Amino acid sequence: MGSITLKDIRKSFGGVHVIHGVDLTIEKGELVVFVGPSGCGKSTLLRLIAGLDKPSSGAIEIDGRDVTRAGAADRGLAMVFQSYALYPHMTVRQNLSFGLENTRMPRSEIAARVADAARMLEIEELLERRPTQLSGGQRQRVAIGRAIVRDPTAFLLDEPLSNLDAELRGTMRAELSALHDRLATTMIYVTHDQVEAMTLADRIVVLRKGRVEQVDTPLNLYNRPANRFVAGFIGAPNMNFFPAVAEGGQAALPGGVQVAVAASGPVSFGIRPQHLRLAAPGEAGIPARVTLVEALGAETVLHARSDGDTDVLVVLEGQPELQRGQELALAFDVEHLHAFDAQGQRID
Amino acid sequence: MENEIAQVKATAAPEGSDRRLRRLRDRLGPLLRQVVLLPLVLISRAIDPVMRLIQAKAGTGGMIAVFLIPNMAIFGIFVIIPIILNFVYSFTGGAEILLDQRAWVGGQQYERLTDCQNYLDPLSCREDLFWRAAHNTFFFVLFQVSLMVSVSMITALILNRNMAGRGFFRAVFFFPVLLSPVVVGLIWRWILQREGLLNLIVTNFGAERVVWLNDRFYAFAAAIGVSTWAHMGFFTLILLAGLQAIPKDLYEAAEMDATPPARVFWRITLPLLGPNLAVVLVLALIRGVQIFDEAYVLTGGGPGTATMFMTQYIYEVGFASLLRNPGLAAAASILMGAVLVVLTLMQLGLSRRAEKARER
Amino acid sequence: MSTILTFLTRRRGHGGRWHWTDVASWVWLIGGTVLMFGPALWLISSSLKDPAQLAEFPPTLLPYVQQTAAVEGHDTPLPLFTVTMEDGSTRDLAQVRRIGANAQMVDPGDPDAQISVRIADRTPVRDVGIAHGNYTDPFLHFDFFVYLRNSVFVTFFATILTLFTNSMAAFALSKYRFRGRDAVLLVIVGTLMVPLSVILVPLYSVVSRVGLLDSLWGVILPTIATPTGVFLLRQYMLTIPDDLLEAARMDHASEWQIYWRIILPLTAPALAVLAIFSVVWRWNDFLWPLVVLSRRELYTLQIGLNTYAGELNVQWHYILSMTVVTMIPVVLVFVFLQRFITTGIAGAGVK
Fold first, then answer.
1. What is the ipTM of this complex?
2. What is the pTM of this model?
3. Is residue B109 part of a domain?
4. From the CA of C195, how many Å to the nearest CA of chain B?
């Protein structure tokens, strides 16, 4: 139980189109992450699935049942809000049981579920407190607990960790992952943080301007981005791009390195900063001049400018001795090169 | 050794009783709250299923209607309909109150009200009482508003000086605002009577006793003074809020520039308080035009018609006097309403400007 | 003690000497305090005096009661006077009766010897004390208790209904988007411009048409849909995050439950302010009850008091005591809830 299907979902607010025809199937038990820059429509899509907004056209099915016109309460979903949306005038226990009381569940059953969830999330001592008396992390747990007690078909999480500090975010991420393994319930998770997306997701949905750019497992997204946007969005620091012109199945990178490409006309090549290295003596490479060296200890981030005024980022292992202004050549392995056509689509 | 034990006991005992008290409170508190909330819980138990049914049948839109209808129905019946009827009334004649017994007379009531040889002399008018009330109200508003705004302003400025006991004094000036107009009127009638407190003070200064409210001039002045007394606290509060919204660093900057206090007032305080002051002014005008209760209880409009104001005229012509004429009262109230609408629009415009100024 | 002194003499400057503005400010504030509280205190003090004292001039600041003495041979205690005798000495005598310009008096220590004294030669022996009859009589002999009950009834139900209708309307106007919302808001703003005195005549006919004339509900109903209340509550509700409502919707709450279990508890501070306002407004209402109520047994305190003031023009001792009683709830509100009101007004700029 817990498969969700979106069919050609469109949404506009007063003439402004926010979602342009999204088709998506989420399998039961899957943890799917919606990721994209702000304004890409990922939260809107989540709210459409939740039933808090209604799509302008298209259909939403949960377990094969059409719920497009059903209200939020009738979809059997639970949501964790970015602001947590804990009822400030109720204790933690009341917050957890409010939704169950609304479904006229027997009191003993409510108490049992609340106790279970509290144990699972280790918030048993907090049950009689009010949200204002809790720390950010504790509120986060309560918000998740409120979703868990409902035993929903699927969890919807709207940037749930964005209000936590970096350290807590890491811990909660691991806990969420463990929770998903234990519950094996479908989860849809919205975030703009690609680290969260990469670490948590079974599959990632990359969105841009209301369109799905790519849906795939995290590593597939990283290794075989479907287009330039995905390639640039996934992976940190961002991928380097070099423009080139393909002719007769060949294109030249700055510095004259020739690469085979199945296209003609303007193309671009992408290579991740981690996949560039300092060329060995005599090895062909992209000539560049160092503009900034950021030594982080374990690795060194090199900012350089290649011929043709393209900025290049290089992540080098260790602590190589480099100076600003130094001229060097950057080498790479061809299998790490990603080629994109003029429209930004991947060329294999 | 014994001493130590005694000490331990001494410190433990209050703690123990404290804990017992707290436990008692923890047990009693929820119980009490439940007793208080029980009626509300029962009401909600009864209403809940009904509302769920409505929501299921009529949707969220139906619920919006459910939420709006009680308020808007009362609004419609007791405000909107009377506003419309008022115009109808003003074109009818006769002494009957109920509309279906009244005869259509066209614009006669308005003609009667405005039939005047010299608008500055009520006696030259056909409906001289109306013009007397209009004159009285005009002069009342003129003097009362200027007195009240200046007194409120001075008080607010003083309260804004970070003096000791500011909260207390702010409350002091607010006290009469809460009193009912009848109580205000009676208190001052008692003070202003022949054997009253004011005459005690006056005779102490060697003057003759005066029956204040029997004198046209003093009665009018009393109406002004008493209504100022009763309402200035409210306006002081608004002005004080405005003063406190002025950023402190402006005054500090002025102090660094060695600006003299008077200049600080004219060049910093007043311009920044301007929008608030304007709102207070218009609000005071609107209230002043409607003056009735406390003046009515204080003087009953007398001596003669010296303190008869517009609302009293409408009330007496509409209901009380022997020569009852609701149509005339309606026409008069529409003329007064027109003045109020103009003043209110001014106020809305000014407060919007004040809001914008605050956002900036 | 010295800390109190430094606290009291602290001025806006940083130490230093008294500036004339400091002096002027204190004079203004202390004078204001006397002027604001004085009349009410004078009223209370006067309400404790007996009729004879009220007619006196110059009036005394405190209420006095004439001393009496139990004298043998007389069933009731006799009033005591200080009498100036013909030889210029003074004695305290009890008055038996008054005949014309003379009074028959006895010495309480020597009850058999009666002395005739000119009334000009005696002055009452008095002590600070109160004439409690002023307070008990109105309840016993007038309908004062009925008026009190009517006022409590009107204030209570008008406030409860105001809170309900206004909060429901404010909820709909703050948390839903629907066509005509702005029009509804505009209508409500518009009615702010139309005070009662302007629609007195037609409102009376409407109330009489719906059969509420001479009924306390006729006083209550027209007052409960206050635009001020709707605005105050709406303004507050706008600050409640919509996320909470959506969370509740996900939690299977109906729209009514959202109003009842989420919005109302969270609006409690604003509701409290409106409740205080409403109590003061309805308790103090004068013109409208004056128009609607013509049967005496339905009068509210304010109307009853005004009527008494007209009828009992000479019996100020009753009027004053009833005025004090009428003032009590408002004084209680002032003492305990003043802070809420002042912040409420400063925040919303309304009364």
1. 0.78
2. 0.79
3. no
4. 8
